[in-house]
Amino acid sequence: MAEQASLTPRGEDLLAEALRWRNEGHTVALATVVSTWGSSPRPVGSQLIVDDKLRLQGSVSGGCIEGAVVHEAQQIMAGAPPKLLEFGVSDEQAWEVGLACGGTIRVFVEAVE
Q1: Neighbours of 46 (CB within 10 A)
Q2: How far is CA 93 from the centre of its chain?
């Protein structure tokens, strides 16, 4: 039986892809989940890469949070400093932003040099 591919590439696969994109002449940003509290769709260490053509691989959350992370990644690729993002919601707002049971997630976004 053939092995089923993971939905989210392993960290080393993402970093290799980020390097490939850099070697092709693209700017690239890396987002990493550095802490969570309560509900979080992705564990600490989950990563997302994005380039200047808005190619994405990996995942740090989903829903509105992922969109906000991509927006910050674009700013960082344009020269803004690295940034620690924090998203937290009440249980009532949780479904709207993709944290199904409420909680907090911190994501560090940096340029890949």
Answers
A1: 22
A2: 21
* pTM reported for the whole predicted model: 0.80
> Tens of pLDDT along 64-93?
789 999 999 999 999 999 999 998 765 555
In this structure, are residues 58 and 18 in contact, taking their beta carbons and an 8 Å threshold? Answer: no
What residues make up the domain containing 28? 14-111
Query: Which ranges constitute the DSSP H helices of the chain?
Result: 11-23, 63-77, 94-97
- Among residues 94, 46, 53, the alpha carbon closest in space to that of 73 is found at 53
Of 43, 35, 55, give the one whose Cα is nearest residue 11: 43
28 — phi, psi (to 5°)? -140, 140
- Number of domains, the chain: 1
Residue 3 covered by a domain:
no
> pLDDT tens for residues 3-61?
333 444 566 789 999 999 999 999 999 999 999 987 777 899 999 999 999 999 999 98
